[in-house]
Design a protein that fits this description.
The chain is 42% helix and 13% strand. It starts with a helix and ends in a 17-residue tail after the last helix. The protein has a two-stranded antiparallel ribbon with strand order 1-2. The chain has one domain. The chain is built from 2 helices and 2 strands; from the N terminus they run αββα. It has 85 residues and is an alpha+beta fold.
Length: 85
Amino acid sequence: MSNSISDFCAQILKLNRGIRFAGIANNEGKLAGPAYRPGLVPLLTQKASEISVLQSLIRADTRRGLEKSSAGRCSPTPATRRERG
């Protein structure tokens, strides 16, 4: 793990107190230099964080593929929930 990556992640945490975690991932979802806000219990284990990053990479790749197809550029749509019944 590079000190520059760890330092960069620590600097990200300083940008906003609402940021709990910062990390750099490679294209396989492996985290380098993850940083957690001191004094907080992480919501995910490092393994769960890597899985989450990998899922994000897959979604991003899917969006890029759709944008290149005839479907055109994707625009995010907020999700809404309906009441059951």
